[in-house]
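From the thread on structure requests for the teaching lab: each student submitted one protein with a one-line request. Submission from student K.M.:

"Model Sodium/calcium exchanger membrane region domain-containing protein from Eucalyptus globulus, tokens only."
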Amino acid sequence: MGSLQERSTHDFEDTSTSSTSKVFQKMSPFHAAEEGPFSGTSQVGSVNMFSCACRSIKIVVFSNKLNLLMPFGPVAILVHNLTGHHGWVFFLSLLGITPLAERLGYATEQLAFYTGATVGGLLNATFGNATELIISIHALRGGMIRVVQQSLLGSILSNMLLVLGCAFLSGGLVYMKKEQVFNKVSTLLISTIITIDIHSLFNVSLPDTLKFGVQSTAVVNSGLLLMTVMGLLFPAVLHSTHSEVHSGKSELALSRFSSCVMLIAYAAYLFYQLRSQSNQYVPLNEEGSPSGESAEDDDESPEITKWESVIWLAVMTAWISFLSDYLVDAIEGASSAWNIPIAFISVILLPIVGNAAEHASAIMFAMKDKLDISLGVAIGSSTQISMFGIPFCVVVAWIMGRPMDLNFQLFETAVLFITVLVVAFLLQEGTSNYFKGLMLILSYMIVAASFFVHVDPPKG
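Reply posted by the TA:
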């Protein structure tokens, strides 16, 4: 009797174990597909992988209205092969790359959920400017050095005027009845960075409010920007004063040496941020935001998995690189067909595409009353382009055998300095409204009009 009862108990345990195993296989088809010897389990895993792929495509491709411009990329290739009309190829390629640049930023943000705040902040800063770097490398391959210089300069101008202006305007329209206020530390940080550089360049006296309480992070960032100013100004001064030891060679050698030093400084800065200032990229809401929200109020979570983010980053980067080849090849033809200076195309049109991710992020955070993050996106991206993007392109051109240097023409340099001056004075008060945003956008329109009537002087 006892043995019979014991046997029934074992039978019941075996039955329950097998049923539990079947349930676990249904819940974890990927694990079952790897471990189970049955073809049915493998089919379930394949079906689930297909459904996950469809879900990922639906989220990444079909969840944003801007992605309606994606088909223009293949249309640009078709027009290039059938008609060869450079104007239309350039315009369609420009439209096709715009949503890809925005989705590249989206994939980076999704990956940042899994890497943590510090590495995520650095990933956003790096891949946020990936489109500009890809276009610049393709332009270097074609020997279009001035296009590279002007497009990188245009990216800085676009971030500081257009992106920040759109963020201020959008946030001001949403919160029209009040004046948005920056976080005190962030305002001091960014205003000090910019104003110190203007003081050194224009001999403008610093306000008393910025002379005190400057934190170590502000000093580090201002030092980086001052080093960038040195790297850009010295070759131009050497060229304009005709004081080169070896005419035509010393300027290039100085630019390459300065670029290597700037890249080393940027790498040291990243190490410093990762090791010594690990809380630099912690979201502001975790410590308290100007709007009084806390971390518990944000229910943001990743929409795709880590490996899906990596795959989408690779796919978007490859497709942007492929379309950039058609875009760069059509620049000169589009300039002739539309009777538009190449300088306008390089400084105004190309950076608007490359800064699509910054546009979306800055506006989104400003409309959530998180202007500190919007400022970090706009000003931080400008700093990264000047400290990493420009010297990186000089080194890549050196490897390719192209004589790219840091000698930006006088007109471009003057536009950059005046832009920094305007942004610095608008940020000094630590407040924002829609009128300040409108001022920045109108200032960008003046810059665009200036480059529309600007051509490079003859080399002789």
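TA comment: The chain has a mean pLDDT of 74. The two ends are 111 Å apart (CA to CA).
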